[in-house]
Amino acid sequence: MSYRDPHSFTDLDQGRIKHMNLDLNVDFGSSRIRGTAECVLAAPAAGPLDLDTRDLEISGVSSADGTALDFDTDHADEIIGTRLRVVLPDGTESFTVKFLTSPTASALQWLEPAQTDGGQHPYLFSQCQAIHARSVIPCQDSPLARFTFKCTMTVPEELTVVMAAAPGEARAGGEAGTRTFAFEMPQSIPPYLFAFAVGNIVSEDLGPRSRVYTEPETLQKAAWEFAEVDTMLQNAEHVFGPYLWDRFDFLVMPGSFPYGGMENPRLTFLTPTLLAGDRSLVNVLAHELAHSWTGNLVTNASINDFWLNEGFTVWAERRILENMHGVEAKALSAAIGRNGLMEAMESFGMDSDFTKLEIDGAGTDPDEFYSLVPYEKGFLFVALLEETVGREKFDEFVKKYIKQFSFTSLTTAQFEEFLNAELPGVAGQVGAKEWIHQPGLPANAPTFTSARLEMLETLAKGWSDGVRPEVADAAKWSPDDWQIFLQALPKTLPEADCAWLDENFKLTEQGNAEILSNWLIIAAGSGYEPVYDRVRSFLHEVGRMKYLKPLYAALHGNDSTKAMAAEIFAANANGYHPIARGGIERLLAG
Ligand code: BES
Ligand code: ZN
Q1: pLDDT tens sequence across 256-285
Q2: Ligand 2 centroid – CA 403 distance (Å)
Q3: The domain over range 205-279 is classified in CATH as 3.40.640.10
């Protein structure tokens, strides 16, 4: 029996879909997509074949010659969704499913014109990781089941479609007032990387292989912020080997995008909160770029092995950062990561199973246990391996790892096997078993120190004893400096202290979302009223969960602002992506 993904009905012993021909019709009026999916199998199959769906209406399944095929959707699971069981006649090579998405499809956000930068046109985008592709197309929604695809998408003629795929010709659609865009993805992808956006979208070239897409109102700012993309690409190739996806374009999303970035191949999606105006948050672009190798070429077998995607990618992201901005910048970034890791582990409980690298997520919604653990504990483990064998040897190991497992999906056990074969004895030397299978953080975790980091943390730790930064010095701090300092301050401060910080450093007016969110968490959590208006406007403008969740948690955790949290959420819930809305609902119910 083949390995099974606990978050999918996929059973590869029944057959594997290797290619899809998709035709999608977007209707903004009803917030639905009507589609057909021709599924081409890797080998002729017969009997039941199970696909994943969620809130999809299936109107028919037919064989290649048009004969209707039996199917049922009798089996459903609250977390995994609904099983579409198709019954294939002997020797089936392909079949076609006709379907209609729900207005509440968990991957999709349908934006009113007022929720866009331009305010004139509606906008639609998808976010399929971890298990939401099944709410857009019926598919074997497991990273084990890679497929290539062709896709046509018909939309109102004034809108543009962009997709994580190679664009083809656009032509007039079948119905008046529509336009059909064509795409092809020749490299096989796991379903969670299927992605598109529809809206008033324009672009600008930034290098021979890269272009930024965004609404016209944001284009100039975005092009400036990410102008270094080609240098990043060259740095990443130096670490990993050749870039195999042809182009590295990216799309700066509307504010409600629930993540910082999403590594959709050929078209990374980015939150507009990265547009700080000083290039201080471009590490997220480096991170998504690094996924082109770790994640998109070598993919986790299931969400249980998610650390293979994210741990390696954070390591690569910091490696690129080190190349471009030096070891000090890397140390600060690792220190920020470590703060986040300790907070995440403490909130699970240090002995929680969710603080292991390899986890058992069966029976739990991946959106519920999403945390920094696979990122930052994963980073520390990879950094420890690098430190132990030395950079040169480790670089060779990483390049071989990528080469050997490109376009495949890998379990943690397979990684361990590869590690033992390539670097014999190292797993034992670093205590890999403990890292992977035990909760908490092993004592041999590498530390990243820098004089600057120590200075900032010492200053912050002395706060309660009356220690204060020199105003003139702190006014020159970098955004990373501020993040370290704010994160090291006590979680709540007296009103006078909040006022002192705000008067001297104008934190409430900060345009850098990292500084602003760290400040608002402290100030709002301290019941400091002068920030309430900014808290309201921030929670209205921004849909990135990294900012929403801790800020809602701070408000919810304080008796004086608990009601305000509920009231702000009620006013903005409709503007959040379904994934973010669900997450905050759970948080406020706790
Ligand atoms: N692939 C993730 C985003 C993701 C993970 C979406 C799981 C859905 C489920 C992406 O690469 C990511 O990690 N984004 C981070 C950026 C960061 C760590 C630099 C984010 O969104 O904050
Ligand atoms: Zn990532």
Answers
A1: 999 999 999 999 999 999 999 999 999 999
A2: 20
A3: no
